[in-house]
Design a protein that fits this description.
The complex is a heterodimer of chains A (303) and B (362).
Chain A lengths: L2 E10 L2 E11 L3 E5 L6 H8 L7 E6 L2 E2 L4 H7 E4 L11 H11 L4 H14 L15 H13 L5 E5 L7 H16 L4 E5 L3 H7 L2 E6 L2 E7 H4 L2 E10 L3 H10 L3 E5 L2 E5 L7 H10 L3 E8 L2 H12 L1
Parallel strand pairs in A: 3-8, 3-9, 6-7, 7-8
Antiparallel strand pairs in A: 1-2, 1-4, 4-5, 9-10, 11-13, 11-14, 12-13
Helix pairs in contact in A: 3-4, 3-5, 4-5, 5-6, 9-10
Chain B lengths: L20 H13 L3 H9 L1 H19 L16 H5 L5 H27 L1 H9 L3 H5 L5 H20 L1 H14 L4 H31 L5 H25 L10 H13 L1 H18 L4 H10 L35 H26 L4
Helix pairs in contact in B: 1-8, 2-5, 3-5, 3-9, 5-8, 5-10, 5-12, 5-13, 6-10, 6-11, 8-10, 9-10, 10-12, 10-15, 12-15
Chain lengths: 303, 362
């Protein structure tokens, strides 16, 4: 188990940040979703052993979050949302410093720094001052400094915020590779659902300090019983028009048509409509929820 | 080519325990600060008093041995009472103590300057660049962070206030050629190191506390200078108006000076020198060397250092509160130590509360 939190409560003054949060997540890439004030940051702080909590308990990578805080931080890497870089320091020195703070000797840290900078694609920029890096490069050097000690769990807090599409794609590729090819578990906190979907296998949704939803993304995006996505060969508009004549609801979606069958209607309606309009149905599949829909419906249920 | 194609290797090498994690912070801090030419300049200029102290101890050792090497330098000892010239070993502790006292008068200023140059950036820079998570999301405790930062100040203060007196002492011992030298002056060695530790702990924690209060390093530096100036001026005003013995303790530098007096026992050395000089006065009519000796024995500005006889003249105004006619502080050194201890506790409190609130990630 990656982490297992049980009935965790944390209060800041009058604000209840966590209200009996219980969640157990397996190893892998996990997306952490939730609106502002949902308790995401408090949960990350708790996982890192940075704050004490009011009640409850749990383990991260099998280590108790009350008693083994330093051991947990030894096994976890954290990429904060803030810049948190020293502008006048060379890239290679910055990452080596992070390695030294994690317990590496100076020589080892420097060697490891070169390796991870190569890995994140900053090999050419390693002797440049961090101040000269672009936003994407800064994000990558933060990741490099977080993985320099080879953590088992990497926590990324809003890693693609403020990045251009190319830089964002690079960071997502990096996260995907770490999670799926390098055996590193991820906790990926983001407001951008496509990013979470692109990287993660699991997702957990927090709201008002409680767990609203968790599970595998492919399972959560369940098929709808009476909704289908279809694509026709020629005139999609005419096909939709004919469907509406038969009392079937439809709506264009990207290059497809969303079709919702009403009471007593079956898929036969579509085949009959195709026959009537002389159309050829090229694809037909049950519609699946998007992650956004899953997220919004979980929030609605939570309220 | 995807950026990750160059591979990622898992780390299988050794990692040190938590005990020495602070050392990485200190090492990086020292390395970063040493790039400043100002700091290098202060450190090298601060070596001049150390060289002077070493030279004095070497010459004193030669004087004790009545070495012929000393012949070209004998003029420096003209006017010393004959009993000192003949039995310099008997006065070793007195003259060494006064020499160390004079040395620390200079080095205290250099130490404060170095704290001013090194300290302001230590925590305020981390605040400015939001670098606190860089530390506390890693296997570091707050105490590691504090000690690491304090270590940077300690390193530079040690370069001027601990290492030079220890080296000078060892040089003096080497030229003493006497088994009793440790017995006579060992206290000085211990006191010098202990005093360096007092400076480090006091000024270091105070500077870190101030540094943790602002993101602006210049403001921190200004606050540090303000602490010197305001506390010294306040002490001066209080001394002239309230006229109580405790008034000098309002000055931070005076507190450090008073504690040092107690640690290396300057008053005893001064008293012995006074006895010696008064005996000499009865035998001779004074001279240049005696005045030089008097000046060396008195802190600048003391009544006796203004020239003439070391014995307190009757027609001068009374000494300021807190000092006697010979420049010795008359109030309890425990009072100054208490002020320093209070500042230390206050600094630790500020640091603890500030960093406790700062290690909460945004």
């Amino acid at each position: 188990m990656l982490f297992d939190l049980r009935d965790l409560s944390k209060t800041y003054g009058k604000i209840k940040a966590l209200r009996g949060l219980s969640v157990a997540m397996p190893e892998g890439a996990i997306g952490l979703l939730g609106p502002n004030g949902a308790g995401k940051t408090t949960m990350i702080r708790t996982l890192l052993g940075l704050i004490s909590f009011d009640s409850g308990g749990g383990e991260v990578l099998g280590m108790d979050i009350r008693t083994r805080r330093l051991d947990i931080r030894q096994a976890v890497g954290f990429v904060p949302e803030d810049e948190c870089l020293f502008p006048s320091v060379l890239g290679v020195e910055f990452v080596a410093y992070a390695g030294e703070l994690a317990g590496m000797s100076r020589t080892d840290a420097m060697q490891r720094s070169h390796e991870v900078l190569d890995y994140v694609g900053l090999g050419e920029a390693r002797y440049r001052k961090v101040a000269s890096y672009s936003t994407g490069m800064k994000q990558r050097i933060k990741i490099a400094s977080a993985i320099v000690h080879d953590p088992k769990l990497l926590i990324l807090d809003e890693p693609t915020n403020g990045m251009d599409p190319a830089g964002r794609e690079e960071v997502l590729e990096l996260a995907r590779d770490l999670a799926h090819n390098k055996g590193m578990s991820l906790l990926f906190s983001s407001h951008l659902l496509p990013d979470v979907e692109a990287v993660c296998d699991h997702v957990m949704v927090l709201g008002h300090g409680r767990l609203l939803l968790n599970g595998r993304i492919d399972e959560l995006k369940r098929p709808h019983a009476h909704e289908y996505e279809t694509r026709v060969r020629h005139d999609q508009a005419a096909f939709a028009s004919q469907l509406s004549v038969r009392g079937v609801w439809s709506e264009p979606f990207e290059d497809r048509l969303l079709v919702r069958l009403g009471e007593g209607q079956t898929l036969a309606c579509l085949w009959e409509t195709a026959l009537e309009t002389g159309e050829q149905i090229r694809s037909l599949r049950p519609r699946q929820s998007t992650l956004e829909e899953v997220f919004l419906s979980s929030l609605a249920e939570g309220d | 080519m995807p950026i990750f194609d160059q591979g990622y290797q898992h780390w299988t090498g050794p990692l040190s325990g938590h005990t020495w994690r602070w050392l990485a912070i200190t090492r990086r801090g020292v390395s970063a600060q040493w790039k400043s030419w100002w700091i290098k300049a202060v450190v090298f200029i601060a070596l001049i008093p150390a060289l002077a102290l070493s030279a004095f101890l070497v010459l004193w050792g030669l004087l004790e041995q009545k070495s012929s090497i000393l012949t070209p330098f004998l003029f420096l000892f003209q006017g010393l009472p004959p009993e000192v010239m003949e039995g310099a070993k008997g006065y070793r502790a007195v003259f060494w103590t006064l020499a160390f006292h004079a040395f620390f008068n200079f080095e205290l200023i250099f130490s404060m300057l170095l704290v001013l140059l090194v300290g302001p950036n230590l925590i305020s820079q981390d605040l400015r660049f939001n670098a606190i998570p860089l530390y506390f999301s890693r296997p570091l405790r707050r105490i590691d962070y504090f000690i690491g930062k304090l270590g940077v100040i300690a390193t530079f203060v040690a370069l001027v206030a601990i290492i030079p007196p220890v080296l000078a002492y060892l040089i003096g011992v080497a030229f003493g050629f006497d088994a009793n030298v440790f017995a006579d002056t060992g206290r000085l060695l211990v006191a010098s190191v202990a005093y360096g530790v007092v400076i480090v702990l006091s000024s270091g924690t105070l500077m870190l506390a101030i540094s943790s209060l602002s993101r602006n390093s210049r403001m921190v530096g200004a606050a540090w200078i303000g602490l010197w100036v305001i506390s010294s001026v306040s002490a001066g005003i209080l001394t002239n108006t309230v006229r109580q013995d405790w008034c000098p303790t309002v000055s931070y530098l005076h507190d450090l000076l008073r504690v040092r007096e107690a640690m290396i026992d300057t008053p005893s050395a001064r008293a012995k020198l006074r006895e010696l000089t008064e005996a000499g006065q009865r035998q001779a009519q004074g001279g240049m060397v005696r005045r030089a000796l008097s000046k060396m024995a008195r802190p600048p500005g003391s009544i006796a250092s203004r020239g003439g006889s070391i014995a307190p003249p009757n027609n001068l105004p009374p000494p300021p509160p807190g000092t006697d006619a010979y420049g010795n502080s008359t109030y309890s050194w425990q009072l100054s130590a208490g002020v320093l201890a209070g500042l230390f506790v206050l600094s630790i409190g500020i640091l603890s509360s500030r960093i406790k609130s700062l290690d909460r990630l945004k």
